[in-house]
Amino acid sequence: MSDRELDQQLVERAQRGEKRAFDLLVSKYQRRLARLLSRFIRDGADIEDVTQEAFVKAYRALPAFRGESAFYTWLYRIGINTAKNFLSSSGRRPVVNSEIEDEDGESYDMASQLPDYNTPESELMNKQILAAVNTVVERLPEELRTAISLREMEGMSYDDIARVMDCPIGTVRSRIFRAREAIAVELRPLLDTAKNRRW
Amino acid sequence: MKESVSALMDGELGADEAARVIAAIGADESLKETWSRYHLIGDAMRSGKLSAINVENAVSARLAEEPTVLAPRRWLGSTRRRSTVGAMALAASVSFAAVIAWQQLATPATGPIVAEGSVPVQVRPLQAVADNEDPYFLAHQDMTSDSGVLKVAYGSGVRH
Hints:
The structure holds 2 protein chains of 2 kinds. By secondary structure, chain A is an all-alpha fold.
């Protein structure tokens, strides 16, 4: 089952009334959508509001989604339209007036040098999370580090990773899981504080 | 189960197992948190900059106020497969009907025919059936193109 097929299954479940399935899509795409919207909107609180609104609009529009495009492409279009409406209604101008017409939603996510419009508090949290993840990944045993890096950074399938690492596919699955768990354990003290519980 | 969540988010489960794991995540808040944090880890590894955002709870709260979506749609990707299945079912039905008709034609059309351990039926020539006063049959007999085809009368017993 490909990533797109997984999204399709979650969407179909949401279309059958399973709101929890839509929650999983929100978890998956919220940061990518927010990064996209930060190209249009300056204020961090506004980005959060528009991201939230875009997901609600997407949920309402689910009956019209038939899978002609990937879910994220459809979601990103809703996000961009929501951002434009927000800017129009508030009389503001977009941060970056980029014309994004590419069918492939991933191209929206290319901006690695985004301007920083987060609050100092949230920016600190971001840096702490990034530092913690990077530190743990560096400390992982080589086989776990390689497996998780090939998966998350190179987007390789388990089958391809198994060939690269010359090991059974079940071993790849196990290594990636153990790497994620090791990172999650290190993040827990950071994320589970009352202040940061929302993460 | 957490390992299955990990494989699910990588798109590495079959459809059945994926459905099972998705259902489990929906029923277990700790698995939902695992799903969420694994995605956070992935986002952190892929980009040197995270977006300071978490709208999961806010969206979930707003969706709780929304009418539940109940709109299963026909997905474009599966249309061809479903059409093929429909065509095969139609072909099987036509074949079955042809076999039954052939068997009926090969059987002498006199007297009642009693199926084994079943309700007896009687095969009669068309005219014999048309002679009765069944208004439904009389109204629709013009729709049959071949008057030579024998008609089968079904009922709780033999109709005379």
